[in-house]
Every structure is written in C-alpha cells, then in structure tokens.
Design goal:
Length: 238
C-alpha cells in the first residue's frame, strides 16, 4: 500500500518544519512550498492533502486554493491566525475543506489530517470498484448519481463535485423529501461533533452544491431550504 502524500504550503519556515517532522513521523510523504506559486508548482496528481496557510506574501492562500480547485478535488486544510467566523466561511467558499487556527496543537492538526484523508479515501474509492459490478444509480428528475463511482450527472452532463458536496447530495437524494437540519447534515457528512458555528459551514457547501446542479441557484428546484428546519431534496420535478 503506497504512502499518502501531503503538500505543506507555509511561508513560516519553523511551522513548516514542525509540521513536516510530525507528518513524517506518522509515515506520510511530505512535499513543501514556501508560497502559493511554489505550492501550485509542487501539487502532484498523487497529492492526497494540501495544508495551506492563508496569509502568505505574493499569492494568498485563498487565491492558491481557488487555483487548486480548477484542477483538483484534493482536500485542503487551511491554517490561519484569523479567528472570525466570516474568515472561515470565506476560506470554505474559496474551496477549502477544513480550517485550523494558529496556534494549534500537533494532536489537533493530526486529527484533522487523518479525518480529511479518511473521507477522501472513501470518496476516491470509486477507483477500487470492480468494473464487473452492476452500477448502482439514484435518479431524481434530471439529477443522477452513480454510487459505485461517485459520479454525478445533471441533464446527462457530469458535474465535478468535491468530496463533501458529493456526500451532502448523496445524503439528501438517498432520503428524498426528508428534512435534514444543519446538525443532521454536519454529523452525517463530516462525522464530527456539531457546534452552532457549523451552521455556516453547511450553508456554504449547500450554496456551492446548488451552483453546480441547479439551473438557477437562487431559485433551486432540487435542494430546497425549509425555513427554520433545514434542507431537503425535492421530488416534484422527478
């Protein structure tokens, strides 16, 4: 079994070295970059996770993440000294998957890393599915999921969803018309304890998912908000 590869993009040499030593002690392969431009150059097809500082000279971490998202769905863990909830949401909107505030403990960092890699491995498990296995589809209206290969099609066109976006959509489509609260979604998809601040995280991913599957994200047909209760996948157009 090949080792998992992690790219650290951090302009602080001391933090970068400390994180590298920690990850290598856990038997990960580690690539390093001291700024966003070098990070983009060092991103590989077999990179399994990017640890990305937000505040860097030159290309910011947010801009770097946006560029990564143009070519890869690799999970991105942001590191930042900022603590405002709005800053976290901005990072998620840029394509980040998780957020760790400096200073952080190595135990906390390692926990986030393992959780992201575990979810990504499950998401990428489509590559391990036997070609002879019968395809397992969920289809509602013009939205179709191939559950064996984690593929999503809208009007016959494949959509490029992140791992978290895919898992939210799968949860909603497996239980059409059922209302899921933000807490239900967060605990089911992130597999982590829910806190009130997680509402914004769920909201951002729902918004990004609508952009990808709805013809008019401002007036969605499928992923509906049930005010005061949560979200559901509507079947009226099936």
């Amino acid at each position: 079994m090949s080792k998992e590869r992690i790219l650290i993009v951090e302009d602080d040499a001391d933090i970068r070295e400390g994180v590298r030593i920690l990850l290598e002690s856990e038997d990960y392969m580690v690539d390093e970059a001291e700024d966003g431009r070098e990070g983009l150059e060092n991103l590989r097809d077999d990179t399994d996770l990017v640890i990305l500082d937000i505040m860097m000279p030159g290309i910011s971490g947010l801009r770097t993440c946006e560029e990564i998202r143009k070519i890869s769905n690799v999970p991105v863990l942001f590191l930042t000294a900022k603590v405002q909830e709005s800053d976290k949401l901005i990072g998620l909107m840029a394509g980040g998957d998780d957020y760790l505030t400096k200073p952080f403990s190595y135990a906390e960092l390692l926990g986030r890393v393992k959780a992201l890699l575990r979810r990504y491995k499950v998401y990428m498990g489509k590559n391990e599915t036997s070609d002879s296995q019968e395809d397992n589809y969920i289809k509602i209206g013009n939205v179709r999921i191939n559950c064996n290969y984690n593929e999503v099609f809208v009007d016959g066109k494949e959509k490029d969803l992140s791992e978290l976006e895919y898992r939210i959509l799968l949860l909603l489509m497996e239980h059409p018309r059922k209302i899921f609260s933000a807490q239900n979604i967060y605990e089911s998809v992130w597999n982590e304890p829910y806190f009130y601040s997680c509402n914004g995280t769920v909201m951002v991913h729902i918004r990004k998912l609508r952009v990808k599957i709805e013809k008019d994200p401002q007036n969605p047909r499928y992923i509906m908000t049930v005010w005061g209760k949560g979200y559901k996948f509507d079947t009226r157009y099936s």
